[in-house]
Structures are given as C-alpha cells and as structure tokens.
Design brief:
This protein is an all-alpha fold and about 170 residues long. The protein has six helices and no strands. The chain is about 45% helix and about 0% strand. The radius of gyration is 34 Å and the shape is extended. The protein starts with a helix and ends in a 12-residue tail after the last helix. The model has no long low-confidence stretch (mean pLDDT about 75).
Length: about 170
Amino acid sequence: MARTGRLRGQRMRRAVFAAMLLLGVAACNRGGKVGPDEFSVLPTRPLELPDSLAALPAPTPGGINLTDPNPTGDAIAALGGVQTAAGGIPAGDAALVAQASRNGTDPAIRLTLAQEDARLRGRAQRGEAQNRARYLRVYAGQALDAYAELLRFRNLGVQVPSAPPAE
C-alpha cells in the first residue's frame, strides 16, 4: 500500500515537472510570430521571356531589373497617371504643367522660402525678448480659418466636400 502511494507521488511530481517545463518553454516565445514576416517579402513581377533572346535588355550592374518592384510607378498607375520611362512629363499632363507654370518658376524657391521664413522668425523672436517664439504664435497671422474658407467657397458656388461640425 505504501509503495503505491510513493508511485503516485512520483508520478504526480513528474506530471507537475512536465507541466512546469512546458510552461517555461511556452514563456520563451515572448508572443512573437513564428515563421516569415509577410511584410518583409516584396512581391515581384513575373518573369517574362521575350520572343527572341536578342530582344533582352543589356544588363545594368547596380541598376534595376524589370521584375523589381516600382512603388512610385505603381502608385502613379493606381491614381490614373502614366509614368514615362525617361522620367519626363507625360503628354497627358503637359497641359496641367503648362498651366501651373504659366507665370514662370523659380528654380531656387526652396532657398527663397527658407530665407523669408528665417526673417519672419527673427522678427518674432526680437519681439519676444523673454520668451522664445513658439511656432503657433509666429505663424498665427498666416493661419486660415477652415470654416470661414468653407463658407466662402460655398457662397461662390464651388462644390466642396462636407466638413465635420465646428467645435
């Protein structure tokens, strides 16, 4: 009788030990995913064999392959645009670009804007000797009231999307 009690005790200890071991191994997982990360796998275009091997493009070391992903081109195509191979302006967009640049373009616009911004912030900082100029205070005069603009456009007859209610 005593022997069966000892066997049960040993079996119970072994079962508890096995359960603790399994829990310990399960805790090592840290909730991570097992297997490949689906976001690290980039889909490529299918390989295509040209009609003749003479039509194969010349290799470009360090360049791109025809099967490489092209997110910019894919986004342009998804939005209804056409990407040109040379990176120029597609013929369908020429009228838009001509209209946008009808008054000329400034090739140094970024430098000009940076200088004007530095001047504006310099004036605002001189006016606040004790306090450092904060972004919202400096640019408060240039901020638009979205709801006033919405009403202005509606009064002009321009179709505008709905807007959330003013707070």
